Amino acid sequence: MTKKVANDLNLVPFVSVDNMMKIVLEIGIEEVLIGIANYLEVDFKRWELFDKTPRVASHSNEGVIELMPTSDGQVYGFKYVNGHPKNTKDGLQTVTAFGVLSDVETGYPVMLSEMTILTALRTAATSAMAAKYLMPKKSKMMAMIGNGAQSEFQALAFKAICGIDELRLYDIDGEATDRCMKNLTGFGINMVKCSSEQIAVEGADIITTVTADKQCATILTDNMVGSGVHINAIGGDCPGKTELHRDILLRSEIFVEYPPQTRIEGEIQQLDDDYPVTELWQVMTGKAEGRTNEKQITLFDSVGFAIEDFSALRYIRDQLEKTKQFQNLDMVADPDEPRDLFGMVLRAKEAK
Ligand code: NAD
Q1: Is the residue at 213 inside a domain?
Q2: Which of 13, 91, 164, 311 lies in the 20 to 30 Å Cα band around 343?
Q3: Which residue's alpha carbon is nearest to atom 42 within ligand 1?
């Protein structure tokens, strides 16, 4: 049975937003990003044993709500997540999420957690883990187009995991760049605010695109991408929502999480269904080649896959005993006699 944090099986530890912030601050953000990346490595290297399915998406004009389930046979996990690019205009987040881990043997939930912050952490850790395998050697400089909620997490993961210490930032909203730079002050990254995407990508070893727009946008055109660059494309993660010009894809070696999902949601929705791509887990296990020369353009076409949330939830669960950052939720009905559920309801009236 899965390791439990609470003693009573009916009590489920719940990690609130406040708990998550305290965990991150207590452990340290870069340590957390490295920790999640280590859990990701373990799970990507046992990729084949997981239940895998493209996420279940419910689309509307304004956004999407998705369920992302997976299981390794012992532990089951799922995330509820939305993506609503127009939300920020109303003071709301583009992406919010929560998730659950359960014990496969009993089906009982073992942890419920906020995942808005955790998604930003796991997305950044996944990006940096992929880049570790694909980026040019001795990469130091990253361009980051889109400086919203995900951006600082991305920057710090690339610093902690890939050694990036120079950042060139661009956002159509200059205030987003200012806020991002202010938040990253003191973390040991040299930052330059750029006036266009074109200027931001000049001299960069890695280009991260992390914009939000519910359309097929062209954040990067072909002429902006020089040979040898690694592209970490985060924001194209829905049907009809991409960031890169198709010609860039045709010049790149493309790496993805789970092809059946990425072909629907990623940059490669612009290509034929049988266009060759490489699964990241295969590179990590030595089953496929990553970057093969310094001139190659490598592209991580990230859409976010359920196993990444599973790894992040496992990491957080393993921090609970030490940090005590959770509350027990009375979430599972637990009559003394399992079949006397109704009797338990009646006895609650007597107890009043
Ligand atoms: P956000 O709304 O907080 O930030 C997006 C930023 O992009 C904003 O500051 C906006 O001004 C900027 N922007 C929009 N169009 C631009 C353009 N043409 N050029 C430059 N900047 C532009 O959103 P967020 O939470 O940071 O998420 C960013 C994107 O990442 C979203 O599309 C989201 O769906 C995606 N995402 C992907 C994953 C994944 O696993 N791949 C995970 C989380 C979020």
Answers
A1: yes
A2: 13
A3: 123
